[in-house]
Amino acid sequence: MDCKILLLVTFCIISKLACADICELSALFANCSKRGFSEIPQNLPEYITQLELSENVITKIGSKAFKRYDKLLVLHLANNNISILDRDAFEGLYELKVLSLTGNRLDHTRYPNNVFRPLKNIHELYLNRNIRSPPPFEQEKTCEYSDKAFSWMVNLKILSIDLCGSSNFGIGFLKLTHLQNLTFDNCLACNLTRKTFNNFRNSNVTVLNLSRCELYEMSESIDAGILYPFSNVTSLDLSNSYFSLKHALQLLLPFRNKKMDMINFHRVSRNTRSSPENPFKIVITSEMMQFLRTICVKTLIMSYNGIVDAKPNSLFVFDHPECFENIIISANSFWLENTLQYIEVLKLSSTMINLRLFDYSYVPA
Ligand SMILES: *[C@@H]1O[C@H](CO)[C@@H](O)[C@H](O)[C@H]1NC(C)=O
Ligand SMILES: *[C@@H]1O[C@H](CO)[C@@H](O)[C@H](O)[C@H]1NC(C)=O
Ligand SMILES: *[C@@H]1O[C@H](CO)[C@@H](O)[C@H](O)[C@H]1NC(C)=O
Ligand SMILES: *[C@@H]1O[C@H](CO)[C@@H](O)[C@H](O)[C@H]1NC(C)=O
Ligand SMILES: *[C@@H]1O[C@H](CO)[C@@H](O)[C@H](O)[C@H]1NC(C)=O
Ligand SMILES: *[C@@H]1O[C@H](CO)[C@@H](O)[C@H](O)[C@H]1NC(C)=O
Ligand SMILES: *[C@@H]1O[C@H](CO)[C@@H](O)[C@H](O)[C@H]1NC(C)=O
């Protein structure tokens, strides 16, 4: 027998742990990550407050699987292969603050109505990366999220979840009044409308992340009111998405004349599969800037968007230049060619009194 195993066996006998499972225990934390578990281990100390079960091969969470561990505050189940949650799966987890189910195979339209009912105190829930994007994209039917199941988590502050091609968030989401950070990942928006996010309107989301959103249908216009339910957002991330800069700028309608910390529009003009030529030579116009111009924003990122030119009274004219701390417009393709642009930039520079970083590097020919 290998010396290490012998030592482990000896240790197990002495400490009376059922070490067949070989979790690593330190104080109140049980690390059972990457141990090949196919079920929730039932032989860990009852007093643990943190249980790490990521990267195992669990496919199902059965009835009362965690009842024994009712002191748990943090439970990680990321990157297993979970597709089935019993309706009593989380029974007993009344203290739980953080639950991660990232990277499993859950169906957001089929949660048992009461499955999250015990989680009255939960603050952070990660349900992202459970649906996969199957290219080529097939027009799927509307995804009706199991809103009743979500409605129990009245203290939820942070939610990360997939966005289906066509999503319907029911009235159960109106109960999430404490929601602050909302991330859609994977984000497969196909048909965003003014209705899509309407039932988030009672929450107070300040950080909204639609980074890497894939848009499969790029129509001429986009409904500028899509983000109205999120009008308290101060940090908006649309980076690396397929919105196109023109549409992304339209989506700023609800934030007119508001104060924001960050607008991240880095590479919002990724090519679409259907039209690889998707507008990657963009001339900024005054109309495109009509909403952004009015926002008092600290950090503005518009890098890598194929901007080739800016019309007068557009990219360099802002109502609140004093708000800027960082501006990043690198990796575009424009020069300050005409005198008018040059004058606008000079004027802007003299009014951006709080500016710390202006990144205008990399101007490809
Ligand atoms: C948990 O165990 C895994 C596998 O041994 C290890 O990679 C990981 O760093 C551990 N995590 C913590 C927080 O100790
Ligand atoms: C995950 O579960 C699905 C069925 O839900 C199965 O087809 C697949 O082989 C499983 N994958 C792994 C890596 O176990
Ligand atoms: C929520 O978003 C804010 C702003 O980006 C960030 O500072 C904070 O860490 C986020 N919270 C979590 C738990 O991700
Ligand atoms: C988008 O959704 C709206 C309302 O839900 C519907 O009327 C419209 O036909 C849909 N458009 C596409 C392209 O699916
Ligand atoms: C936005 O914040 C204000 C002030 O904190 C609050 O009264 C209002 O209900 C919030 N609105 C939304 C949509 O969260
Ligand atoms: C909304 O969130 C902001 C920032 O976290 C906070 O200042 C404000 O009081 C909140 N408003 C409500 C109604 O909860
Ligand atoms: C948004 O989510 C992406 C991953 O999906 C992450 O890399 C990025 O940091 C997030 N943005 C913010 C502002 O938290």
From TrEMBL:
Name of the molecule in the record: LINGO
Pfam family, one: LRR_8
Keywords, alphabetical: Leucine-rich repeat, Repeat, Signal
Signal peptide region: 1-20
Keyword Magnesium: no
UniProt cross-references to Gene3D superfamilies, sorted A to Z: Ribonuclease Inhibitor
Parts forming coiled coils: none
Keyword Repeat: yes
Organism for this UniProt entry: Mytilus coruscus
